[in-house]
Amino acid sequence: MTHRWFDYLVRVQPHHTDYGGVVWHGTYVQWLEAARVECLRELGVAFEDLVNLGYDLPVIDLSVRYHQPLTLGMAAVVKARLAPVRGVRLSWHYQIESLQHQRCASAEVTLVPIDMTRRRIVRRMPDDLRQVIQKIEAYFAPTEAPLQ
Amino acid sequence: MTHRWFDYLVRVQPHHTDYGGVVWHGTYVQWLEAARVECLRELGVAFEDLVNLGYDLPVIDLSVRYHQPLTLGMAAVVKARLAPVRGVRLSWHYQIESLQHQRCASAEVTLVPIDMTRRRIVRRMPDDLRQVIQKIEAYFAPTEAPLQ
Amino acid sequence: MTHRWFDYLVRVQPHHTDYGGVVWHGTYVQWLEAARVECLRELGVAFEDLVNLGYDLPVIDLSVRYHQPLTLGMAAVVKARLAPVRGVRLSWHYQIESLQHQRCASAEVTLVPIDMTRRRIVRRMPDDLRQVIQKIEAYFAPTEAPLQ
Amino acid sequence: MTHRWFDYLVRVQPHHTDYGGVVWHGTYVQWLEAARVECLRELGVAFEDLVNLGYDLPVIDLSVRYHQPLTLGMAAVVKARLAPVRGVRLSWHYQIESLQHQRCASAEVTLVPIDMTRRRIVRRMPDDLRQVIQKIEAYFAPTEAPLQ
Lengths: 148, 148, 148, 148
Description:
alpha+beta, 3 helices, three-stranded antiparallel beta sheet, five-stranded antiparallel beta sheet, Thiol Ester Dehydrase, Chain A, homotetramer
């Protein structure tokens, strides 16, 4: 059984680094966000459209483990996939790898839909949002055959 | 003739620095913003109240000159003052100094009030905003006598 | 048994917020860092001195749970404490609360000392670092009597 | 006479925005940096190689004018070019445009080479750096014929 991943390429710019010459640990949070937003866009879902529909998807849980530092000028791949959705929680899993396939960081980010007019977590997934999410889930559904 | 300044203290944290071991040049923009917001608060004007009144104060012009770098752990004073207001443009002047009074950076930031419902620059300063600004101008009005 | 916390005050500035009008979830990582650096400074340990001794303390694990959003202009307290140290792992626990004692976020950050000349995790805590850490541990040691 | 520009594409992510729903004004400073670093890379000059040679290129002057805001999800082009070099000052000019060619911001950033071992501005451009810069200048030299 093989997982499909969405690959998002990043390049370490000076503003990503700190005094240690490596990427500052909080910078990864920006990359995790950009990777999932661009994954949605690739699947035809513009995040700004969700916001305009009156939903927001705030992060309620974030965890990152740091394995190897990235230094100025290095390129890396942020690999992202949505885990099977239970209830209203959307859980994204991440692997961040150097171009030489060295594991640099791994992460998990959980988001929940919020009704912005009432600023409350939705109890049940609204139909329009459910359709969007099923599309994303289908994309990441594990397959028997190896993917390229 | 002496200018009054509002002093805002900052401390260089790891996330402010870059690979060179000094404060990344874009970090100063955060400090300039915090200094003017805290100056307003000191004078009784909460920026969030302006936003809730339906105004925003976007920056339309920013310039920073960098004289001496600040390094990890250093403290510095962001000295801010509002220049005399002409029309609807609010122009803030800044000096950033180390605690040893060494000049590290100087800056100028210009903002204009926007009516958020129409997302347009106001042509004339609205009365409620004018009162707020006159209060701030009065605070920074140059005086004959030296200040402490 | 009561825990001692180090309190670090933050104020939500415009650059901390996102399109949702609340603090962007990655901003908290800056606050967690500033809180532990300022805690060390309060106890007489300047982080830049550790760096100058040839050590770095990279984060190897970060987790944040978000309970209630903070909005523009709000003040909050980042409460930080070092958990009892095992081996070379330094684990900081955090509670972020509004001034009305509402729980906004909780977090845990783990760091390990690195020998910067060899860029490797130290196997055993070096003596100079151990002394620093024991001082911090002593500060946070649980006491029988309630603290004020 | 037509100027050649280096085009660097950006997409507005949630972490780029502020409470106003538009890109926070300091975010542009990251984009200006990324655009010039990627322009150098395109011309065969990796910025990290300059750093490893013992040089740094700190920003000594930054100015940005903001014309039209960018909102969540919008794409924009950061157009960058190096102005003809005089002495040791490298001056980059920028236009930031929406994909509909609306001018969103314009900027100018000046950098000077620093000898990192002595942390001083170089008096004369070192030979290895001069060769790099002449290559970049040649790329941006104005031409008689219109470019595509």
